[in-house]
Amino acid sequence: MTYHIDYERDETGRWVASVREVSGCHTQGRTVREARRRIREALGLFINRADTAKLVDHVALPQSVSNAITEYKSLREKADTAAGLATRRAKEAIQFLSRGGNKWRLSVRDTADLLDLSHQRVQQLMSEPPRRTRRKAS
């Protein structure tokens, strides 16, 4: 089952966590992490298998801050995707430049200069095994 947890700061600065679906189930902590850990313990007093229940956090923040966090997470995900693609393309270029035919068998340092990477990073990428990509079922 899924439980929605509301987190709010009290007048002393502590985080108060309450389970929407379970009346009277609440706790507090100095940090959100501590309150999150404790609310699962508190939920265990009301239900069986609280350790495997899905908890959905709802932290009370100003709307502008919530919007900034949402945008950050979206941008971070896009950046991670772009970084993965950049790494795959760098590996392809390194493979070609360093292990190609006699004409293109460049040194690690020349390869690094062409890719604007450090020679250490090129060496690291050369030694990583290729990652398998999953094909989507059609």
Structural class: alpha+beta
Q: Trace the largest sheet across and list its strands.
A: 3-2-1-4
Oligomer: single chain
For the termini, the CA-CA separation is 33 Å
Gyration radius, rounded: 25 Å
Describe the sheet with the most strands.
Answer: 4 strands, mixed
Residue share in helix: 40-55%
Low-confidence segments, ≥5 residues, pLDDT <50? Answer: none
Secondary-structure element pattern, one letter each:
EEEHEHHH
Number of strands: 4
Shape, per Cα inertia axes: elongated
Strand residue percentage: 15-25%
Specify the number of helices: 4
Whole-number tally of structural domains? 2
Tell me about this structure:
- The protein is of the alpha+beta class.
- It has two domains: 2-60, Double Stranded RNA Binding Domain (2-Layer Sandwich); 65-127, no CATH class.
- The protein has helices at 32-43, 63-99, 108-115, 119-127; strands at residues 2-9, 15-19, 26-29, 54-59.
- The protein has a four-stranded mixed β-sheet with strand order 3-2-1-4, with helices on one face.
- Helix 2 (63-99) runs antiparallel to helix 3 and helix 3 (108-115) packs across helix 4 (119-127).
- It starts with a strand and ends in an 11-residue tail after the last helix.
